[in-house]
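QA checklist item 7 of 12: single-chain prediction sanity check.
[x] sequence parsed
[x] length recorded as 112
[x] structure emitted
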Amino acid sequence: MQVPDAVDGSLSDSVARGIDSGGVNTAEAAMADCQTRASHCQLYAVDTAVVWSGQTGAPAPTKFSKLEDATAVPYLSLLGRVGYLTFLRLQRSRAFAIAPDGAWGIHPATTR
Protein backbone atom coordinates (compact mmCIF):
# COMPACT_ATOMS: atom_id res chain seq x y z
CA MET A 1 0.00 0.00 0.00
CA GLN A 2 1.31 3.41 -0.83
CA VAL A 3 0.45 6.27 1.52
CA PRO A 4 0.60 9.81 0.11
CA ASP A 5 3.07 12.47 1.24
CA ALA A 6 0.23 14.65 2.46
CA VAL A 7 -3.51 14.31 2.92
CA ASP A 8 -5.21 17.57 1.93
CA GLY A 9 -3.59 19.42 4.83
CA SER A 10 -6.04 18.05 7.39
CA LEU A 11 -3.57 15.66 9.04
CA SER A 12 0.02 16.18 10.07
CA ASP A 13 2.53 14.70 7.65
CA SER A 14 3.57 11.89 10.02
CA VAL A 15 -0.04 10.99 10.86
CA ALA A 16 -0.99 11.02 7.17
CA ARG A 17 1.71 8.44 6.61
CA GLY A 18 0.80 6.56 9.79
CA ILE A 19 4.38 6.64 11.10
CA ASP A 20 4.85 5.92 14.80
CA SER A 21 7.72 7.17 16.96
CA GLY A 22 9.64 3.95 16.27
CA GLY A 23 9.56 4.58 12.51
CA VAL A 24 6.94 1.89 11.83
CA ASN A 25 4.34 2.69 9.19
CA THR A 26 1.24 1.71 11.16
CA ALA A 27 -1.04 1.83 8.11
CA GLU A 28 1.16 -0.62 6.19
CA ALA A 29 1.53 -2.84 9.27
CA ALA A 30 -2.26 -3.06 9.79
CA MET A 31 -2.74 -3.83 6.10
CA ALA A 32 -0.09 -6.57 6.27
CA ASP A 33 -1.81 -8.05 9.34
CA CYS A 34 -5.19 -8.07 7.55
CA GLN A 35 -3.67 -9.52 4.37
CA THR A 36 -2.52 -12.59 6.28
CA ARG A 37 -6.24 -13.48 6.43
CA ALA A 38 -7.70 -11.88 3.28
CA SER A 39 -6.50 -10.70 -0.11
CA HIS A 40 -8.59 -7.53 -0.36
CA CYS A 41 -8.02 -5.26 2.65
CA GLN A 42 -8.54 -1.53 3.04
CA LEU A 43 -7.60 0.84 5.83
CA TYR A 44 -10.51 1.82 8.04
CA ALA A 45 -8.83 4.10 10.60
CA VAL A 46 -5.44 5.63 11.30
CA ASP A 47 -4.85 7.17 14.71
CA THR A 48 -7.91 9.37 15.37
CA ALA A 49 -9.34 9.53 11.82
CA VAL A 50 -11.68 7.21 9.94
CA VAL A 51 -10.07 7.01 6.49
CA TRP A 52 -12.30 4.37 4.85
CA SER A 53 -14.45 5.62 2.01
CA GLY A 54 -15.64 2.28 0.70
CA GLN A 55 -13.13 2.16 -2.11
CA THR A 56 -9.40 1.76 -2.55
CA GLY A 57 -7.09 4.71 -2.89
CA ALA A 58 -5.03 7.04 -0.78
CA PRO A 59 -6.37 7.34 2.76
CA ALA A 60 -7.79 10.68 3.75
CA PRO A 61 -10.12 11.50 6.63
CA THR A 62 -13.77 10.95 5.76
CA LYS A 63 -17.06 11.64 7.45
CA PHE A 64 -18.13 7.99 7.02
CA SER A 65 -18.72 7.62 10.76
CA LYS A 66 -17.47 8.68 14.15
CA LEU A 67 -14.25 6.90 15.04
CA GLU A 68 -15.76 5.57 18.30
CA ASP A 69 -18.76 3.92 16.55
CA ALA A 70 -17.73 0.26 16.32
CA THR A 71 -21.16 -0.64 14.92
CA ALA A 72 -20.48 1.50 11.82
CA VAL A 73 -17.41 -0.49 10.76
CA PRO A 74 -18.50 -2.61 7.78
CA TYR A 75 -17.90 -6.35 7.32
CA LEU A 76 -16.93 -7.17 10.92
CA SER A 77 -18.22 -10.07 12.99
CA LEU A 78 -18.61 -9.74 16.75
CA LEU A 79 -14.97 -10.78 17.19
CA GLY A 80 -13.91 -8.14 14.66
CA ARG A 81 -15.85 -5.47 16.57
CA VAL A 82 -14.05 -6.52 19.74
CA GLY A 83 -10.80 -6.11 17.79
CA TYR A 84 -11.89 -2.63 16.72
CA LEU A 85 -12.69 -1.69 20.32
CA THR A 86 -9.17 -2.89 21.21
CA PHE A 87 -7.82 -0.62 18.45
CA LEU A 88 -9.67 2.34 19.97
CA ARG A 89 -7.90 1.76 23.30
CA LEU A 90 -4.42 1.68 21.73
CA GLN A 91 -2.13 4.66 21.96
CA ARG A 92 -1.25 6.41 18.71
CA SER A 93 0.21 5.68 16.17
CA ARG A 94 -2.29 2.99 15.29
CA ALA A 95 -4.22 1.69 12.29
CA PHE A 96 -7.10 -0.72 11.61
CA ALA A 97 -7.77 -2.44 8.25
CA ILE A 98 -10.85 -4.34 7.07
CA ALA A 99 -11.75 -6.76 4.26
CA PRO A 100 -15.12 -7.65 2.67
CA ASP A 101 -14.88 -11.25 3.92
CA GLY A 102 -14.73 -10.06 7.55
CA ALA A 103 -10.96 -10.25 7.99
CA TRP A 104 -9.33 -7.38 9.81
CA GLY A 105 -5.88 -6.19 10.82
CA ILE A 106 -4.58 -4.01 13.60
CA HIS A 107 -1.33 -2.25 14.39
CA PRO A 108 0.27 -2.25 16.79
CA ALA A 109 -0.49 -5.97 16.76
CA THR A 110 -2.33 -7.39 19.76
CA THR A 111 -3.04 -10.89 20.99
CA ARG A 112 -6.27 -12.17 19.44
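[x] summary fact logged: Residues 1-16 have pLDDT under 50 and may be disordered.
[ ] second reviewer sign-off
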